[in-house]
Each structure stands twice: as C-alpha cells, then as structure tokens.
Amino acid sequence: MNHSGMNEKKIGLVFFYCTQQGEKVSHLLMEWDDAPLVELRKVALPCSGKLEVFFLLKALENGAEGVALLGCPEEECRYFIGSERAKNRLRITGKLLGEIGLERDRVRRFVLKKDAGSTDIDALRQWIEYIKGLNPFHRDSEGCAG
After folding, report:
1. Which of 103, 89, 100 lies closest to 16 in space, CA to CA?
2. Which CATH architecture has domain 11-71+79-133?
3. What local confidence, expressed as pLDDT, does residue 81 receive?
C-alpha cells in the first residue's frame, strides 16, 4: 500500500447513483473529477434499486478496480423499496467477489443522508484510498470502460 506516487497506476472507479442524489453526488465527487490517478465514471439511475448485480460485475470486468453506489437512506427512498433492493444487490455482489477470491469491498454502497456532509466525503476518501491500496486484478487495463 505504498502511495509515494512513483509506481502508482491510474485506477478506474465507477459510481452508480440515484438521480435524486445527483446534485450531492456531483459535489462529493468533484475533488476526483480531475485527479491524475483516478478515472471516474458516473452512471445515473432513476433509483438505486434499478442497479442489478450484473451491472456491478460488468463494471469490474470492464476495467474498474472499484464500484460504488451512492443512494438514499431506506426511509427516504422515493420508490419505497429501491434502497433496500440496492443494499441486497451489493451484498450479493460482495459475496460473489469473495467466492472468486476478490475483495468484497471492491463494491460499496454509500448512503447519502441529508445532513451528513463531511461524513460522506470522508467515507468516500477512505474507500478510494482502500481501493488504491489493493492489488489490481486487471492486466494492463487502462481506465474503466464500465
């Protein structure tokens, strides 16, 4: 987990997010938009519950080293059960990754609460640093075609 900058490669991250959180997501991810060692791909969803396990795995297959879902708290979901569905799908995806020998935390769900602010950005920073410290599982891949 050496982050001295000498041998670091660009990592691809895919962020799926609920459109209800669009403005907050843009603000949260702003510091990484032009980061030299992080390539972001943002994918808007009508609801986080629309995210299927297939899309999480496909993003990893296409070059992402980490995939995150930024969504609403269960009690604030506009579609009532979308956030609960999303939570279960991330759990299943993490389990599948563990079964094939990859780190479960390569996929992560972040619940964006109305007043969390710096808590959200700190959690994102920690996760991105965690992903940067993992051994890449792609060979000579550039970026994240997601």
Report:
1. 89
2. 3-Layer(aba) Sandwich (3.40)
3. 85
pLDDT digit string, tens, across residues 106-145: 999 998 877 656 667 888 889 999 999 998 887 654 555 4
The residues, any chain, with a CB within 8 Å of residue 134's CB and separated by 6 or more, are 65, 66, 103, 106
- Angle formed at CA 71 by CA 18 and CA 115, multiple of 5 degrees: 115
Instruction: Say how many C-beta atoms besides its own lie within 10 A of residue 121's C-beta.
Output: 15
Q: Are 138 and 65 in contact (CB under 8 A)?
A: yes
Q: Answer whether 86's CB lies under 8 Å from 51's CB.
A: yes
Ranges of each domain in the chain: 11-71+79-133
